[in-house]
Amino acid sequence: MSDGGNVLVVEGDDELRAAYDRVLAEFYSVSTAACGERAFETMTDDTDAVVLDRPLPKMSVAALVGELTARYDRCCVGMVTSSEPHFDVTRWLGIDDYLVKPVTTEQLRATVDRLIALAEYGAIYWRLSQKRVRKSVLVQEKSAAELERSGEFQRLEDEIDRLEAELDDIVDEVSETARGLKHHDS
């Protein structure tokens, strides 16, 4: 996966927060927060991924995740916690990934890579959806001959093909990283 992206680490333990910052800052632009309230102050529209601890001081993780995803719908959230998950934890909390402590540097980075890839996937999918709607309207309203002569329509189809290929590439990268990490953990 490509390096880069903006990551917010929300971790109540000062030493772990500093360690995550050190590990991730080599590859990403990292901001940190010690609690949920500080996370709201630190989070921006440019944040691609949030890595957070459970439990957090002064705020439930579910409340924090709910508010962050309501405000920043293109950001993906991963949890790094010492709490064993319930069967429906990702659905219940609305998170995109879950790691149980202790985690390795490789696991943390692979998780952040996946979160950033998922955020990118969402943004590309949104653009693709808009282009598909535009194409659908044109197909309904224009004749086949008009569409065939239109350079703009051909560019639209080419852009749809390009965006679909980008989505396929992201899925392949995320799957490959997950397989590699699973193999490494065995």
Write a brief caption for the model.
The chain has 186 residues and is of the alpha/beta class.
Q: Could you explain how this protein is built, in words?
A:
The protein is α/β, with parallel strands linked by helices and 186 residues long. It folds into two domains: 6-115, Response regulator (Rossmann fold); 116-185. The protein is built from seven helices and five strands; from the N terminus they run βαβαβαβαβααα. It has helices at residues 14-25, 36-42, 61-71, 89-93, 105-141, 144-149, 151-185, and strands at residues 6-10, 29-33, 49-52, 76-81, 97-100. α3 (61-71) links the parallel β3 and β4. The protein starts with 5 loop residues before the first strand and ends with a helix.
Name of the CATH first level of the largest domain: Alpha Beta
State the share of residues found in helices, binned by percent. Answer: 55-70%
Largest sheet: 5 strands, parallel
Beta-strand percentage? 5-15%
Averaging pLDDT over every residue, what do you get? 85
CATH-scheme architecture of the largest domain: 3-Layer(aba) Sandwich
Report the radius of gyration as a whole number of Å.
20 Å
Distance between the termini: 22 Å
CATH topology of the largest domain: Rossmann fold
Provide the succession of SSEs. EHEHEHEHEHHH
Fourth-tier CATH superfamily name of the largest domain: Response regulator
Q: State the helix count.
A: 7
E-strand count: 5
- What is the total domain count? 2
Oligomeric form: single chain
Based on secondary structure, the structural category is alpha/beta
Low-confidence stretches: none
Strand order of the largest sheet: 2-1-3-4-5
Q: Name the shape in a single word.
A: elongated
